[in-house]
Each structure stands twice: as C-alpha cells, then as structure tokens.
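Q: How would the structure tokens look for this protein?
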Amino acid sequence: MKVAKSELDALARREHGQPHAILGAHATGDGVVIRALRPGALKVSAKASKRPAVELTQIHPGGIFEGTIEGATLPLRYKLKIDYGPGGKFTIEDPYAFTPTLGELDLYLLGEGRHEESYDRLGAHVRKHQGVGGTAFAVWAPAARAVSVVGDFNSWDGRLHPMRSMGSGGIWELFLPGLGPGERYKYEILTADGELALKADPYAQETEHPPKTASIVFESRYSWSEDDAGFLSRRREQLPLSRPISIYEVHLGSWRLNSLEDNRPLTYAELADELSAYAIDMGFTHIELLPVMAHPFSGSWGYQVTGYFAPTPRYGSPDDFRAFVDRMHAAGIGVILDWVPAHFPRDEFALARFDGTALYEHADPRRGAHPDWGTLVFNYGRHEVRNFLISNALFWLREYHVDGIRVDAVASMLYLDYSRRPGEWVPNEFGGREDLDAVAFLKELNEVMYGRDPGIISAAEESTAWPGVSRPTYLGGLGFGFKWNMGWMHDTLAYFQQDPIYRRFHHHELTFSLMYAFSENFVLPLSHDEVVHGKGSLYTKMAGSDPWQKLANLRSLYAYMWAHPGKKLLFMGCEFAQQAEWSHERSLDWHLLEQPAHAGIQSLVRDLNRRYRDEPALWELDSDPAGFWWLEPNDADSNTLAFARQSRDREGSGEAGSRVLVFVANLSPVPRMGYRLGLPRSSRWRELINTDSSYYGGSDVGNLGGVAPEPIPWHGQPFSAELTLPPLAAIWLIPDE
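A: Here is the predicted structure in token form.
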C-alpha cells in the first residue's frame, strides 16, 4: 500500500488530521507494513514478538520511515527501536499501533453536550489500553487543521506526536504508551490561519506552579476515609433549607501564613489541620473557599481561572486538596467552592481563541468581552461549552467530594446589557436584554447537580431583582438552592455606618429586608467584597467616635444578622474585627486577639454560631414567613427594633409546641430602662445572648439573666415585660421552659 507524496508531505508539515491512516501497522498482501515518524533519527527498526527485527527505510526527508514484516497479520504487537546517533538509542511502543480510546457513545454525548463525565474522557488520563499502560490524550479543537501533544517526553517537538481527528465533532485523540503521571505537556495546535498555538489542556487535572503554565498528567491515588463516607451519607439525607448553615468564607493563601518560613502560605495539609480545628472551635457549619481552581494571577484571588479541573498548585497537589476536604468532613465541616462560569481570562496559553477561533467565547465582543474585568464571556449557546461547565461542576462534587458551589457574578450572566452602554450589546431574539442562553445553562446546571447529588448547596451571587433565582425550574425559577441577599447586606451596612443621632431617619433600612425575605432562599453575606477595594473593614465601617462604640456596633450587627431569617456567611477576619482592609498578600491580623476587645468579638461569633445551631427557631423556617413576626418594627425615635422567630410545631414529637426566640436591639449609645416588650409566652424568659456582656467587651448592662413577663398585652402579644436594653447592643431571649 503506497502512500501518496502529498499525504507524506502533509504529515511531515504537521498538517495531517489522520496520522494513524499513514503511521502504525497496516495490512498488505505481503504481511504488515509499519511506518514511523521520527524526525532526526538515523535508523528505525520494528521488532515484533517471535520475529526478527525489520529495519525501516526512510521514505520522506521529514523523518518518515517504512518497512514490512513479511508474513505477519493484524493485530500485531511490536516495538520501535530508534537510533539518534549521539542523541542516544530508544525502544518504544508505537503510539500509532493503538485504536482510539474514545468510543462512539462518548463522541455522540460530547457532541450533544450531554457527557456528564467529559472530564474522564477529555484531557490526559493514565490507563491501560489494549493491555499496555500509558496516557490517553483527547482535546476539543474543531477548527484546528492539526493538533499534536508536546512535552518533556518529546522535547516539545510537535512533529513527533500528531493526534488523530475523531470526526466532525472536533475531538482529537492520541494514546501515548509508557507515559505516566507527572509528565508536563501542552497541545500544539495548527490553526486555520496556519499559525501554531501552544495551549494548556482545558481538562488538565494538575498544572504547573505559576508563572509556569504547562499541564501535568495526573492520576489520583487518594483513598477517602470512612468519616468522609459517613458525612456524604448524612448530606444526602438532609435538606439544607431546613438546617443551620453558618459559612466561614476563606481565601486560603492569606488566612494564616507560616512566619517561621518567610511568611509562606500554609499548605493544603497544614490548612486541613489548622482551619478545620478553627472552624470547629468557632462553630461554623461550612467553609466557603474563594476559587481554588488553577489561576496564574494571584491578584485575581482565583476569579480568573485558567485550569477549571485542577486545584491551584500553590498549596500542594490535587490529592493534598482531596485530603483537605476529607479532613474537613471528618471534622463535620462542609466545603463550598466559589465557581466562576461567568467569564475567563485572555491568557494566550489557556481557553482564549483556543483553536484559533472564538471557541469557548463569543466571537462578537458585544457578547464575548466583559467590560468590567477585561475578560471573555463563555458562549452558553454552544453545546460543548455548556458541557464543559456542567461537567466541571459535577467534577468538583464527585472527584473532590465538595458539598456545594457558589456561582460567582450571576447577574453579569443574566443580562446582555450588564455594564454596557446603549449600542454596546446585542438584544436577544425577542428584542430583550435577558441572555436566554445563560438562563437555559443555569437551569440545566442546577437540574443536573441536584438530580445527581441531592443534599448539595448551589448558591447564586445575584444582585438584581431577577425573580425566582432560588426557585425550582419547574416553577419557572433558575433552580438554585440559595441566593445571596445583597440588598440586606447593602441596607444593613448603610444603617450601621450612620451615627446613632441620624439613625431614626434610616430605621427602615433594617426593617425593609423583611418585605422580601421569603421571596427567595437567602444567604446573608458579609463577604470579601465588602472589605476590599478601598471599602475598609467592617470595623472601620461601623459608626462611633471611639473603638468601644465601633466594636459595640459590630457586636449588634452580628447578633442582628444571626437572628435574621437566612443562612449566614462571614468573611475571615471579620469574626475578630480585623481593623485593616483585607489584602491577599498578607495574613490576617491574628495579633489583634491579644486585645480583650477583639477576643470578645471572636467569643461572640463563637457563641452566636453555637446558640444558632442549638436553636431551631433560627433556621427551621428560614424561608417561611410563619417563622417570623415583628414585635416592634417602628420605634425609630429610640433606634430600637424587636422581632420573634419560631420553629416548626413539635407537639407530635413530645415537645410542647414550637421553639421561640425573641430578638431586641437598642442601637443608641444610651441604655433604655423599663422598656416594655411584648412576649408570646408566660414563662420566664432568659437571656441567651447579650452583646453588652463584659465577656464580649461590653459594659455588662442587662436583665440579670432574664425577665418574668406580666399578663399585660403589648406589641400584639398576650404578655410583656419591662427590660433594660443596654447601649448599642442586642439581646436574644428564649422562654425558660
């Protein structure tokens, strides 16, 4: 079987899309002809078992060799012996002797955008194929004229390992026998314009430490613990909506530094010990990590992702991160990841114009370029792009056992005119501003995640009034489990920044959130976004002419937040009143805990978390108006407000009715004596939390632990009591039954 010169020329130029049609073993009338592409080799021979070696003849100056093993038949196992003269001699399995590692079903599902485990088929995977160990490579690059795998194993020479096209779906594939974990690699892509682009693997599961950008062949050897299995089993049986959720938001690189080793960040292994112990001590139920996916620019905090399937190598290996999650689960702490499907950076080695065309992004900059961040926007209307993102979310849930994702910048996905002036955006097919492709993608994402992994958390950072963000898709919603309550955050911080003398004019900034509190399943976030970019820390935001007043306001804010309907999220450092604005380049100011006032704030957050977890009234009916009612929403002149929370009725379980908790706050700097407050029950009420306790840094004004109500109706309740309300403080009361 003679090969046309034009075919050989194309192969030598790295322009042939079907190298296996020429290279490897092919049946002829005389036996089996073997061809090999080895530029620079002096001699090449083929050795089949139980047959003498056959020297191959160079048939093209580009390094193509050919020879026939007479009398042989297919399938034929053989090895190539290559002599580079001074460069050495090598014996290898021929990569072009193997059948494809992707089946027809894989190709069909990938083309349809329905392959939920595309991460197990695309990328680099160590496996046995036809009885031989090696690494299977596969990449999606439909507009490429040719693709090669390059790496240390072939001196980054794109001529040596051209991949084969698997058809119209745009998948390229190659199995490299003998190649194992730890090998660095990229794809060399010949674009339609004739340019060569060197690209990292979009599906790489390990990457080099920045500023290096190569992908790394990875094979997990991690064995999950029984503690993790038990945690996941319990997770599947629990409904997050009716469970206590208090989230500690963490940037791993700056939470705590190792001062004994040049202030380096802690490793995943060190964080597994220290962060899990701290989260347990503080009473948080979950940690939420700013993006841990591989990113080259540390100043992006992880929000400009280039390696969606690889944890950042800054703190350790992928299996080290698995061990981190495992340790958190053993401690009873859930792990939520920030996830960024809204945009990706323009780095030339990554997704941008991956095959020489706008592949993952829109070609039209009015849709494909993000005006705020200088990044690119995913093309959600493309099957393969949706598949890439959905399988990525599933990948972290399945392969790393994380307990949920928080989707970043959802508002920027939903609106075609987000941060764009007139003329800078393209309306949808109905002339509207909604991105219908993004809406369909988000619905599918949540349907698939909740359908495959019940009990997980899917939360949206969505700052507009888009309806039904956390409602099921069958009711017309986007299908998220939770939505960040950005309105509550904005109004609450605005109120606490006011001097108490002016708060009477801003009183309903605190009460307005209850107008919509049950329209979504909300998380109340005091996140990293509120303590960066010149906004100052929560401490500096608080009104007050001296540190005592600032800390008193902060204590009141936290007590109000933990009593308000909605799950809780607090950024690291806020739990002890970090004074400086957060910076990713330095550690939190842990030395502040040497000061009793800051240690008191930490003690308060610890107690709020513990009381919150123990009190079903604060979380069982978070998304149900039956779990909340106002006692006093209108006392603006006194800067005072009060409300009640309750749990489900427990009569059927042997308990007397529902659990009830009353919250009352005096947000003036003067105590209020004899303040009558309506109470729903006749039993004595005890103080569960008093933020003015000296234990928290307060002045110890209070009610001697509790009050006895009188049968005097007040605030619409059958009973009432006169309370002493401490200054700039909040009190939680529960019936002493």
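The first helix runs from residue 5 to 12.

The longest strand covers residues 132-140.

Upvote if useful.
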